[in-house]
Amino acid sequence: MSIDSCLEDVVLVSLAIRGICRNILQDDEIPGQMELSVVEAVNNAVKHAYDGLPGHEVRVMITLCDDRIIIAVSDSGRAMTAAEPSEPDVNPNDLGNLPESGMGLMIIRAAMDQVDYRSQDGWNTLTMTKLLRTLYE
Amino acid sequence: MEMKTWKEGDVLVVQPMVKRIDSATATDFKGTMVDFINDGNLKIVLNLTDVDFIDSTGLGMIVSTLKSLGHDGVMAICCLSDIVKSLFSLTRMNRLFDIVSTVDEAVAKIRG
Fold first, then answer.
1. How many structural domains comprise chain B?
2. Which residue among A34, A107, B34, B99 has its CA within the 20 to 30 Å range from the CA of B82?
C-alpha cells in the first residue's frame, strides 16, 4: 500500500497493519507492537524524510512467511543518518530533561526482532522483521 | 480535542474522547491539557479508557503535560489498552508515571 506524506493519513496504514496482524497472530500484544513500529516508521518518513510536507509517497509492504512477518516502509526523501537510537533517560526527579521526542527508532528496535535500513535507487527503506517462532518459545 | 472531565474532590479526571493520540492529534491534546493546568488543576487523572492507540508523539505530549504540571503537580494514568501499555513499557515511561487499572485507583494514588 502507499499513502501520501501527511500525518492524518498514517492512521490508514496503522489500521491495515492492525487488521492483518491480528488476523494472523490471534493475539493483541504482538500485533500492537507491530502496529506501533510501523506507525513510528511512517511518521519518521513523513516528518524527517519529507520534512512534514504532503505530496510525497510513503510505501508500506508487508510480506507474510511461515516463520516471520516482514514490513518494509519506504520513502524517496532525505535518508536517515546512521546514528543508533539511545534509550531515553527517564528520571522522575529531573523533569526538565525528560524526553518528549526521538523515541521512534528506539521503539522499533525494542519491538521488532530485526531492523535494517538501506538506501537504493533513490528510495530509503526501513525493513522490520518479527520472527513468529518467538511467540511460541 | 473533545475530552470528558469531572472532579473527584480536588482531582480533575480527564477522559479524551478519541481513539488515537498520535502525530495527527497530539498537539491538540497537549493544548487542551495545558488549558486545564492553566485553570489551576494540578492534580490530574488521565483516563485513557477510550484511547486504543498512542504513538511516540502522543507519548511525548503526555510527558510534556507532566512537565507543565511541574513539581507542584501530580498526574496518574489509568485504563490503558494493551497497545498503550506496550508503548509505556517499550519506552520505559512506565517508570515515570503512576499507571493503574481504574479511575478510583488513580484518584487514590494521587491523594496518596
1. 1
2. B34
